[in-house]
Write a structure and sequence with these properties.
alpha/beta, three-stranded antiparallel sheet, seven-stranded mixed sheet, 14 helices
Length: 389
């Protein structure tokens, strides 16, 4: 559900194990009408799948000293290799504005990085990122949003973005007053990050949008995809992906893609073992949170530095759509990953880790206005120039 196998080191292709689970998307077990597993049995199978994935990653040379902290097309299809030469050029795997700097942990604003998954995913999708960040000496935490991962809330019952984001908001609320975190949001998880910035701006050092819905005030996460899907009203009337959890006579409650759609949209460059892990772990996507307009103010949301990571072989949120996002809502810095699909934590984990480390080391600039990047922080100009060469 992201990077060509030819571009991947062998040890990055090791990742996940296949374990059957009744609630997986496109599950053959469900299609046969097999017995439904209890929540306890599902959680056990999910933990076994994740444990096997982590074990294989460790065998490949990774390390993970702590468990994931589980607190609880939309785009048009694009044929592989269709990313334009203007975007790809001869870029390295990751593009930034400077040569890689040595990791300096002593002067970091914070070592704690909170990882927020996207639609259908869960804390489990960050297992490679957690391993890399811990090896660098940082303190990553991955959360399950409501109805995601091993949180057994019925996705059809999630009525608001606040409901969906509650585990993240609860986590921030419990942080000590003098402690800050870096938030990293993937895909539609960007909406939860934006919501958190509005609620607790003083507890967030930086926000990172990983090919994510970085919306403006009054905008819905779904609006990011509207040009390729037409209007939301048309999509809600015609889409075959909709789930009617409360009955056909009631509004739709969720989205569900089949296995081939998921592979084409999310995982066009992802190793097969990580796709297998996703197949047994992804959940239906609650619809209400991505259809809700966000209220974002300069006094809260606007005071936190934002960074956007673009993926240049993304079939879910196209490079053009990503460029429009950063053009209409400029962040403080832009980073680009060559060959990264919509899930670079699977397809380009080392490139993603390198960028997250660079962002963690960026120091605040005295007198820098919200939404304006300093010369040291800005990466967009260099990245764009390299992409056009």
């Amino acid at each position: 559900m992201g990077n060509a196998f030819a571009c991947m080191p062998r040890k990055e292709q090791r990742g996940a194990a296949v374990v059957s689970r009744s609630k997986r998307m496109g599950s053959a077990r469900s299609a046969r009408g097999g017995p439904k597993l209890t929540p306890a049995e599902e959680e056990l199978l999910h933990r076994q799948a994740l444990a096997m994935a982590i074990h294989q990653h460790l065998d490949a040379g990774g390390s993970m000293s702590r468990r994931i902290d589980a607190g609880a097309s939309l785009s048009r299809r694009m044929a592989p290799g269709s990313t334009s030469s203007r975007r790809r050029g001869d870029l390295p795997d990751s593009v930034t504005n400077a040569k890689p700097a040595p990791i300096v942990l002593e002067n970091l604003e914070t070592k704690k990085i909170v990882l927020v998954h996207g639609e259908g995913f869960g804390a489990w999708c960050w297992y490679k990122t957690i391993s890399h960040l811990e090896e660098a000496g940082l303190d990553p935490v991955a959360l399950d949003l409501t109805g995601s991962g091993i949180d057994h809330t019925d996705t059809n019952s999630i009525a608001t973005l606040a409901d969906y984001s509650k585990p993240l908001i609860d986590y921030l609320e419990k942080l000590p007053e003098d402690e800050k975190v870096i938030l990293v949001g993937h895909s539609c998880g960007g909406a939860s990050v934006s919501y958190a910035l509005e609620q607790y701006p003083k507890k967030i050092s930086k926000a990172v949008f990983l090919t994510a819905t970085m919306v403006k005030d009054g905008q819905r996460p779904f609006d990011v995809f509207s040009e390729e899907l037409r209007s939301a009203d048309v999509f809600l009337q015609e889409s075959q992906f909709l789930v009617y959890g409360n009955g056909k006579d009631k509004p739709p409650t969720g989205l569900m893609f089949d296995k081939q759609q998921i592979k084409g949209l999310y995982f066009n460059q992802t190793p097969s073992k990580d796709m297998a892990l996703a197949a047994v772990s992804m959940r239906p996507i609650p619809l209400a949170p991505i259809m809700e307009k966000l209220s974002l103010t300069p006094e809260n949301y606007g005071t936190v530095r934002r960074y956007f990571i673009q993926t240049l072989d993304d079939h879910m949120l196209s490079p053009d759509a990503q460029e429009k996002l950063v053009r209409e809502n400029p962040p403080d810095g832009i980073f680009k990953i060559k060959g990264g699909d919509h899930c670079p934590f699977f397809s380009k984990p080392q490139s993603l880790n390198k960028i997250l480390l660079e962002i963690a080391q960026i120091q605040s600039s005295v007198g820098l206005l919200p939404g304006k990047a300093s010369a040291e922080e800005t990466t967009a100009a260099t990245a764009a120039a390299a992409a056009k060469s």
